[in-house]
TrEMBL record:
Its cofactor is Mg(2+); Mn(2+). Its EC number is 3.1.11.2. Probably binds two magnesium or manganese ions per subunit. This is Exodeoxyribonuclease III. SUPFAM superfamilies: DNase I-like. Belongs to the DNA repair enzymes AP/ExoA family. It comes from the Bacteria. Residues 4-248 form the Endonuclease/exonuclease/phosphatase domain. The active site is at 106, 147 (proton donor/acceptor), 248 (proton acceptor). Signal peptide: none annotated. Mg(2+) binds at residues 7, 34, 147, 149, 247-248. The keyword Secreted does not apply. The record marks 149 as: Transition state stabilizer.
Length: 258
């Protein structure tokens, strides 16, 4: 089973890029973030025509997450992260596909930090950590995938000294990610590539992609049941070089059937 995560940065505006990548890469399951489209504007028919069924949680102009599948309809479990019933941001959706629980998430950016947006990010991280612990307690295969908006280590960011005050790299955020993975989650990319420079995001400004001035902020966390099933992982970084593309590249993993 090949599973991908992709911050598409506007599902309708980047639809040609998304369809081109789906045809080229042929993932079985895709977690999308930053749809930037309300519920009724999600391009379901086009996605269906590409061979995928979908569930989504949209929001006008901002946020938005979706799970696509070509190996059976995603059985939706929830479309909001527990812990704050008044949270109106569309940042989490969860489904069961092929007996695997998949949580697709778009963690808040948090800038400027310090400030209310950073506080919201840390509180959202706390909610995610609590829910992740509950998922592990059910003793079922689980994947948490998406744009976490955190570079866990210096290896995950171009020139880390320039990012020390950024909400994606502040000590509180890296500690939150560390606490989350300490529950027993496997960082799929780092497990297979422990010492390699790997980025998943390049800003549109200052020729960041051309200079390879990137960040690794899109992650796959696997529960213990899936660690031994992890066979391959990678970043389709060439997609970042396409015309009218997202500032993120698709990230993917491959799991064996058993």
């Amino acid at each position: 089973m090949k599973i991908a995560t992709y911050n598409v940065n506007g599902v309708n505006g980047r639809l040609p890029v998304l369809l081109r990548w789906l045809a080229e890469s042929a993932p079985d399951v895709v977690c999308l973030q930053e749809l930037k489209a309300p519920e009724e504007k999600f391009p379901l028919q086009t996605i269906n025509d590409a061979g995928y069924q979908a569930i989504w949680h949209g929001q006008k102009s901002w946020n938005g997450v979706a799970i696509l599948s070509r190996i059976g309809e995603p059985a939706e479990v929830r479309r909001i992260l527990p812990g704050d019933p008044e949270d109106s941001h569309s940042r989490y959706i969860e489904a069961i596909i092929n007996k695997v629980v998949i949580g697709c998430l778009y963690l808040p950016n948090g800038n400027p930090a310090p400030g209310p947006k950073f506080d919201y990010k840390l509180k959202w991280f706390q909610r995610l950590t609590a829910h992740a612990q509950e998922l592990l307690a059910h003793d079922v295969p689980v994947i948490l995938a998406g744009d976490f908006n955190v570079m866990p280590t210096d290896m995950d960011v171009y020139k880390p000294e320039r990012w020390v005050d950024d909400a994606l790299f502040r000590p509180e955020v890296r500690e939150a990610f560390k606490n989350l993975t300490a529950q027993g989650w496997t960082d799929a990319i780092r497990t297979l590539y422990p010492d390699e420079k790997i980025y998943t995001f390049w800003d549109y400004f200052r020729n960041a992609y051309g200079r390879d001035a990137g960040l690794r902020i899109d992650h796959f966390l696997l529960s213990k049941q899936l660690k031994k099933r992890l066979k391959a992982a990678g970043v389709d970084r060439h997609v970042r070089g396409w015309e009218k593309t997202s500032d993120h590249a698709p990230v993917w993993i491959e799991l064996s059937d058993k």
